Amino acid sequence: MSSTKKFRKMGMLKNGIPSVATFCRVENGSDDPAMADSMQAFAENFHNELFKACRDREIVCVDGKSERGTVQENGRSPDIVSAYSFNTGITIATEACKEKSNEIKAVPILLDKIDISGKIVTADAMSMQKDIVEKIRKKGGDFPIELKANQPSLRYGIEDRLVEHTPVYSYTEGPELARGRIETGTYRVYDGPDIIADKKKWGGNTTII
């Protein structure tokens, strides 16, 4: 049975499949923000049902991606910042930004949409910003965020001071065969407040790995 016949059996599409022009009129007449809010509410309820069966601490992955095949008035493809639940495998919230640089401003707005209390928020180096870090802390979450040269004074200051400190904890994994060679990984954990110079900006209960 074709899809059209199935829909007609359900009392739908009695007059056939709508034309492209009809689809365009429906799409242009829809309230995009309201629809996005409704979809987020649905995703949140679905996510909560899935998470009930998960006993692990939840990991929320924040990342921005360019949406291909769509072009804005400025000629750019829109960048969408998403919060993805690693435990349940679904996206629980999104926030659009007009330019790639606006991802820094979009992440705090995205975090305001979801509950991250007691959860682990992962993000790339672009999210290593004072406002984003403070937002995660205030909402009761933890954050392993990569530190790169976009925060030069913090990064190079930490690298210079690491040699003066002994890690509070370290462990080694391996050896194991990985990427065609035998590798051994050593992880060293340091107390952040002892190493970070600008404590007013980056202070707090911070760990450096």
Give an account of the 3D structure.
With 209 residues, this protein is of the alpha+beta class. Helix content is 36%, strand content 23%. It has helices at 3-9, 20-29, 32-51, 103-112, 130-138, 152-162, 192-195, 199-202; strands spanning 59-66, 79-85, 90-97, 120-122, 169-178, 181-191, 207-208. The strands form two sheets. The protein has a four-stranded mixed β-sheet with strand order 3-2-1-4. A three-stranded antiparallel β-sheet has the order 5-6-7. Strand 2 (79-85) and strand 3 form a beta hairpin. Helix 4 (103-112) packs parallel to helix 5 (130-138). It starts with a helix and ends with a strand. The mean pLDDT is 84.
Topology:
Blueprint: H1 3-9, H2 20-29, H3 32-51, E1 59-66, E2 79-85, E3 90-97, H4 103-112, E4 120-122, H5 130-138, H6 152-162, E5 169-178, E6 181-191, H7 192-195, H8 199-202, E7 207-208
Parallel strand pairs: 1-4
Antiparallel strand pairs: 1-2, 2-3, 5-6, 6-7
Helix pairs in contact: 4-5
